Amino acid sequence: MITVSAVDDDQMLLDGFTAWLGCAPDVGMVTTARTVQELLEREQSPADVVVLDLFLADGSDPVRNVRRLAELGRKVLVVSVVPHRTHGIDVVRAGARGFLTKDHDLRALTDAVRSVAADGLAHSPELAFAWANDTSDDRPRLSTQERKILVAYASGMTLAAAARRAGVQPATAKKYLDRVKEKYCQAGRATYTKIDLANRVREDELDRYPRGCSTSSGVAEVRSAG
């Protein structure tokens, strides 16, 4: 059973979500609260996933709320009534495992909870669009070869096949992928598995022609979103 705690001002959503989970055989609500502080005081034991509203009535800062929970080792899924591109990116960088807008149905929310509970990520199309159009200075910079290996490997190729396509040895290709993962993690976008890499390619539209690159020193540098 995946246990869920929810922090939200919307009692209707809380009631609806709790009722919906009552029909799910593997997910159940254990605690609801209106602030993070109230949650921490009321929970008898930490739930597997915390569903956290982006903006709470107490005026608390969304990033601080996420960071506070993340520092306690909590898996946080942030939900918002409207898409906030910047805030969505900020809370994921602060440690949230996902960001979902409330225009999705309860089934989508439950699926996102399952993904987060399994140490995965849950991103709405709105957040993916935000990553793809992020212009912050700390976005990962991928070299031409890093991008080439990433796109080939994430498309389903083996590491050896991706290396052949890029004209490098498999050991070199692995180093490129390791650097790509490290760059995304440093940007607050946890990337460890092949599925994670495929998600980054899709979110950042890396399989398309680079939006911008610098060819100084003869090496093209691609600025990817995120």
Quick recap:
This is Response regulator transcription factor. By secondary structure, this protein is an alpha/beta fold.
Q: So what's the oligomer here?
A: single chain
- How many individual β-strands? 9
How many domain regions?
2
The radius of gyration computed from the alpha-carbon positions, rounded to a whole number of angstroms, is 19 Å
Mean pLDDT: 83
User: How can the largest sheet be summarized?
Assistant: 6 strands, parallel
- Poorly predicted parts: 209-226
Task: Say what the CATH topology of the largest domain is.
Answer: Rossmann fold
User: Which CATH class of the largest domain applies here?
Assistant: Alpha Beta
CATH superfamily of the largest domain: Response regulator
Q: What is the number of helices?
A: 10
Ends apart, CA distance between termini = 33 Å
Order of helices and strands: EHEHEHEHEHEHEHHHHEE
Anisotropy-based shape: elongated
Modified residues (4-aspartylphosphate): 53
InterPro entries: CheY-like_superfamily, Sig_transdc_resp-reg_C-effctor, Sig_transdc_resp-reg_receiver, WalR-like, WH-like_DNA-bd_sf
Keywords: DNA-binding, Phosphoprotein, Transcription, Transcription regulation
Domain Response regulatory: 3-117
Protein described:
The chain has 2 domains: 131 residues, Rossmann fold; 83 residues, Arc Repressor Mutant, subunit A (Orthogonal Bundle). The radius of gyration is 19 Å and the shape is elongated. It is of the alpha/beta class and 226 residues long. α3 links the parallel β3 and β4. Strands 2-1-3-4-5-6 form a 6-stranded parallel sheet, with helices on both faces. It has a 3-stranded antiparallel sheet with strand order 7-9-8.
